[in-house]
Amino acid sequence: ASVSGALYLEITALDQTGFLGEFLNRLAFFSLFPEQMDIATEEGRISDRFWIKGGGGSAPSDNAITTLRIKLASFLKAGSKNPVQG
What we know:
Radius of gyration: 12 Å
Order of helices and strands: EHEEEH
Largest sheet: 4 strands, antiparallel
Structural class: alpha+beta
């Protein structure tokens, strides 16, 4: 499934306590909000998919996407791959 105008984001990484809560806090800091989430953990790894929009249901700005990519890359610990796709 997809959400029209949303940024699709897929994160795969080693499972980390508190990861989802911290990730959602970081999204909110940039005025980005998940419209839809698919959260999975298997064999010690997270495989989470998000469809993200800006405030008021708008598409995320290019600046917000770029900043989010940079912050996610530094946030994810070793063992992660493809921190942001979209």
